[in-house]
Amino acid sequence: MSGDEESDLRRFFEQQIELYGDELALPKEKLNWRGGEAATPAPGRSPYLGERIREGLESPPRPEPQAMPDLNLSTLEELQGRISGCLRCAIGGRRRNLVFGEGNPAADIVLVGEAPGFHEDQQGLPFVGEAGQLLTRILASIQLKRSEVYICNLLKCRPDNNRDPLPDEVANCLPYLEKQLALIQPAFILCLGRFSAQTLLQSQASLTQLRGKVHPWRGSRLIVTYHPAALLRFPKFKHETWQDVQLLRRLYDEFLSENCPR
Ligand code: SF4
């Protein structure tokens, strides 16, 4: 055996021992490449993957991604029960509560935000922090109570430190939102912020470009406005938000007069 071949073989055996450790199919003495001299790790290196993980030198293998549950369900309660243990994203394992949504299950209007924040994660309810209080006042300004509408988010779990949702989190959680909307079948959807709007409309357009219009969405009419948390930081957007919710109110009044004539 040439020196190069021996070197390659030695490296191969070292990798096998590092990767599989005690689970190696062949006894270690059979992996001896020089008749009697056992394969030993380089000085100072742990031979087995398990030890290297314990020493913080390797990351543990990622668990198999959780499969999408069967969403062939007919009520919101069933859907909530079905996804209550969801761990399809890493943030699922760090949540205090999954924030499913709340409100009238037969609402004509569904509000869709971005993701739970700290207070929402603590209480398991959407829009209960300062931004939620502002949302309640915005609804009151167009003569709507929270109990009349349905409120939920694009993501059901809180992203770490309230960061933006990641693309794989959006992809994992979107079927749950789509199922909620399919069960409620609202006449109107009000997207709060660009994440829910861009995701539902499958658009990269900015919030400024998306707001002020009525977008058809699977039999509903979708309107886009600013997220209340953005209004707390940038009050200058309150005027546009007022215009957006006035548009919603006007269209809703027309809908009511057509569908529930007095
Ligand atoms: S964000 Fe959605 S998909 Fe991801 S773990 Fe939470 S409930 Fe599951």
Question: Could you outline the blueprint of secondary structure elements for this entry?
Answer:
Layout: H1 3-20, H2 49-54, H3 76-83, E1 102-103, E2 109-113, H4 118-123, H5 130-141, E3 150-153, H6 167-184, E4 188-192, H7 194-201, H8 207-210, E5 215-217, E6 220-225, H9 228-233, H10 238-259
Parallel strand pairs: 2-3, 2-4, 4-6
Antiparallel strand pairs: 1-3, 5-6
This protein binds iron/sulfur cluster.
Task: Please provide a written account of the structure.
It is a single chain. The chain has helices at residues 3-20, 49-54, 76-83, 118-123, 130-141, 167-184, 194-201, 207-210, 228-233, 238-259; strands at residues 102-103, 109-113, 150-153, 188-192, 215-217, 220-225. Strand 5 (215-217) and strand 6 (220-225) form a beta hairpin. Residues 16-39 have low confidence and may be disordered. With 262 residues, it is an alpha/beta fold. It folds into 2 domains: 3-54, no CATH class; 76-259, Uracil-DNA Glycosylase, subunit E, CATH 3.40.470. It is built from 10 helices and 6 strands; from the N terminus they run H-H-H-E-E-H-H-E-H-E-H-H-E-E-H-H. The protein is globular, with a radius of gyration of 27 Å. Residues 83, 86-89, 91-92, 98, 155-157, 169, 172-173 line the site of iron/sulfur cluster.
Total helical elements: 10
* Strand order, largest beta sheet: 1-3-2-4-6-5
Total domains: 2
Q: Would you tell me the overall average pLDDT? A: 86
Major sheet size, sense and barrel closure: 6 strands, mixed
Question: What is the 3D form?
Answer: globular
Broad CATH class of the largest domain? Alpha Beta
The CATH superfamily title of the largest domain: Uracil-DNA glycosylase-like domain
CATH architectural label of the largest domain: 3-Layer(aba) Sandwich
Distance between the termini: 96 Å
Helix content: 40-55%
What CATH calls the topology of the largest domain is Uracil-DNA Glycosylase, subunit E
The fraction of residues assigned to DSSP E strands is 5-15%
Radius of gyration: 27 Å
Number of strands: 6
The helix-and-strand class reads alpha/beta
Low-confidence residue ranges:
16-39
H/E element sequence: HHHEEHHEHEHHEEHH
Bound molecules: iron/sulfur cluster
